[in-house]
Amino acid sequence: MDQLMRKTKTTQYLTTALISLIQKKEVSHITVKELCQSAQINRATFYIHYNNIQDFLSQLISNVVVEMTLLLDKNNRYAVLLHSANPTEKYCVAIQYVLDNADFFRAMFSNNGPADFQELLVTEGYNQLVEVLRPLQASFEDKIELDILANFIIHAELGSLNHYVRNNMKYSALYMSQQILTLISGILFALEINLPLAHYRRQ
Question: Where are the alpha helices (DSSP H) in 1-114?
Fold first, then answer.
């Protein structure tokens, strides 16, 4: 088994253990010893791949953010969403990813989960949104500042996702996608921002 496969398996065991432990205590109180015991791996194996718990969490969270972005676009997920009049099918794939990894997202969004998770999602989303909206800034800057608009949209999106996860994901991926896209399109339409998503209609 090569090194990449070994790290992948180790990460899978550690992630499962982390999800279980987060149900009992705050992630900041979880030790390497506890995590390794729960994952049934020795600490030496852990330290081959990670420096400490924070390093493990940072890599884990970064990988999830990258995977979610790649589901929509290799560089900028909002480039796909905002420039399409009906990106439901594409966005639905991202929501389905959340459903398929329900235990992980419940743990990350829980009160015991790492604050870094939501902070990274906000930062990544904000930067991508600004990149897409900046060329259109002249058309709306008399109504709202770019940074305020991007911040509002990303928090509206992630707030909806957080609510979805915390309420047992009771809606289908398709329906949830339609709801979030309707929300974002309404903001764009109200500000008369000339993007295809501003004219989104559920189909």
Answer: 3-22, 32-39, 43-49, 53-72, 77-82, 88-100, 102-109
Instruction: Give the whole-angstrom CA distance, residue 146 versus residue 152.
Output: 10
Unique residue bearing structure tokens 């009771």:
170
Q: Which two tokens stand for residue 109?
A: 């969004």
- Residue 18 corresponds to which amino acid? L
AA identity, residue 65: V
pLDDT, tens digit, 9 for 90 and up, residues 157-166: 999 999 999 9
1-50: CATH, from 1.10.10, 2.60.40, 2.50.20, 1.20.272: 1.10.10
Q: What is the pTM of this model?
A: 0.83
- Where are the domains positioned within the chain? 1-50, 60-199
